[in-house]
Amino acid sequence: MHIADGVLPTAVAVGSYLVSAGLLTWSARQTEEEELPKVAVVSAAFFVASLIHLPFGPTSVHLLIPGLAGALLGASAFLAIALGLLLQSLLFQFGGLTALGANALMMGVPALFCGWLFARFRGQASSRQALLGGVAGALGTGLAALLLALLLVTGGEDFFGVAKIALAAHLPVFIIEGVVSFFTIGFLAKVKPEILNQSFCRVRRPQDAVKEGNQPRKPRL
Amino acid sequence: MTPVVHQLPTAYLLLLPLPFLLFFGLLEALRRWLRRGRARQGERDWSLPALESEPHDSLFSRWDVRCKLLSLLIYAFMIAALQQLSSALLALLISVLALLLARTPLHRALMRFLALGGFMGMFLVVMPFSAPAHPGDTLLVFHGLESFPFNLRGLELAATLLTKGVAIALLSEPLLGSAPLPVTLQGLSRLGVPAMGGQLVLLCHRYSHVFHAEARRLATGMQVRGFRQSTSLPALRAMANFLGMLLVRSFERTERVMDAMRARGYQGRFPETVELKMRPGDLLLSILWLILGIGLLLADRWG
């Protein structure tokens, strides 16, 4: 779910733009040139996943995949999600202008946290990775819903009711996302384990590289 | 001053959903109408991005892209800061005029509007009941439902938010749709957005169509093998494998595309397609637009 324009107080909208810009710069620095195709894939998947509707009781939910993005990309996940949102706004006629920063925070911060969690505890066994993937998937959605509610609450007590409803509406997505992420990460761990992120921060400082006798890393795109 | 309370008989409760039903009915009707229009055009090849038809020649397409992005974005923030319904309606009127000036196709504007529908609909339904009663508020209390007063201030607040949201959403069509995508991205990179971001957006644009086609192919394959969507565990597992397979295939394909691009000399930069030129008229238009925004803000606070 996207926060629409005009809902958040102006100070919050501007502030979240600034924080997002800072995180985006950091995330872009963590991304190496070889990873760019993967970032583009996850950005596009972030968009395509929002088109896949899963039936849930009388209604349907669509996947949000911040947790999955984190597990795949680690620190670059924020970049992928911000790009996905920009793309949606530019080309597919949805997503906001002034709320872009808040939306990026809402989805990107959970992705970063889940990325860190996954990289930290992933281990080697595919069953463990699947389990952790499930936790990351559910947690990603839960945190995103929590951030959404927090952002709405900054509007004052008139927004409390809406924030509660928004939080409750994410409960089915929370469960489905956890189950789907569990199976998806399990699938990826068996079929193409190298696609899963190995460590949260990828960048080695140039002096380390020289110490190890390697070439300093190539300039980024 | 205490809230003004109007006691209404329970029968009036039946009238209450009417405006909301009208709102959601309108949304659904527009959605169906758009879908029918698309079906009439026939099935297109989803693996290709929609070739953007050259935007209509208009005030907005002639406006220098850097001036346009900067001034309209600042103006959008000014709209977001409005507090009164009347000034929000004025901003909506300006956005509609801008749409007409930009000669935006109707269906694109409607899609922007529809994208807001669900989220803002929730505000319209929830806020009148959840807004706490302040001194001076008008409350409608239905006989037998005393604990759920209908606060007209909440309704007005939700309507203001909806109007502001629609005004900004409609404005993004002249802002982003009146120039070809590479030109908009070129403008963004001149405004300090790292070039890598722009390049990635262009690549993603291409890939998202490829994935969409791939996803449809996989989904068709699953359907002919008897897969039906449900919330059961096996069905969710099948969907998860579908998502995983989509990621694996897309990833491999993207890597091949990237290698092929590098082999053809791609070094992280596409050639710039147009030369950006800023004329005094562009600056003047930006200044006028910002003055319009400041005027709206002043009218909102002291009008």
Brief description of this entry?
The complex is a heterodimer of chains A (221) and B (303). Chain A has 221 residues and is mostly helical.
Most extensive interface:
A-B, 72 and 80 residues
Question: Given the structure, what is the number of helices of chain A?
Answer: 9
Distance between the termini of chain A: 32 Å
Q: What is the average of the pLDDT values of chain A?
A: 83
Q: Tally of extended strands of chain A?
A: 2
Strand order in the sheet with the most strands of chain B: 1-2-3
Oligomer: heterodimer
Question: Helix coverage percent of residues of chain B?
Answer: 55-70%
Beta-strand residue fraction of chain A: under 5%
Question: Taking Cα atoms only, what radius of gyration of chain B do you get, to the nearest Å?
Answer: 25 Å
| Helix content class of chain A | 55-70%
DSSP strand count of chain B: 3
Please provide the ordered H/E string of secondary-structure elements of chain A.
Answer: HHEEHHHHHHH
Distance between the termini of chain B: 24 Å
Main sheet summary of chain B: 3 strands, mixed
Find the structural class of chain A using helix and strand composition.
mainly alpha
The shape of chain B is flat
Catalogue the unreliable spans of chain A.
Answer: 207-216
Description:
The complex is a heterodimer of chains A (221) and B (303). Chain A is mostly helical. Helices cover 65% and strands 4% of the residues of chain A. Chain A contains nine helices and two strands. Chain A has helices spanning 10-29, 36-49, 66-73, 77-91, 100-121, 126-153, 160-169, 171-191, 206-211, and strands at residues 53-56, 59-62. Chain A has a two-stranded antiparallel ribbon with strand order 1-2. In chain A, helix 1 (10-29) packs across helix 5. The longest helix of chain A is centred in the middle third of the chain and has 28 residues, at 126-153. Chain A is globular. With 303 residues, chain B is mainly alpha-helical. In chain B, 68% of the residues lie in helices and 4% in strands. Chain B has ten helices and three strands; from the N terminus they run E-H-H-H-H-H-E-E-H-H-H-H-H. Chain B has helices at 17-40, 59-62, 65-80, 85-102, 106-130, 152-177, 181-190, 195-224, 233-263, 280-302, and strands at 4-8, 138-142, 150-151. Chain B has a three-stranded mixed β-sheet with strand order 1-2-3. The two termini of chain B are 24 Å apart. At the A-B interface, helix 1, helix 2, strand 1, helix 4 and helix 7 of A face helix 3, helix 5, helix 6, helix 8 and helix 9 of B.
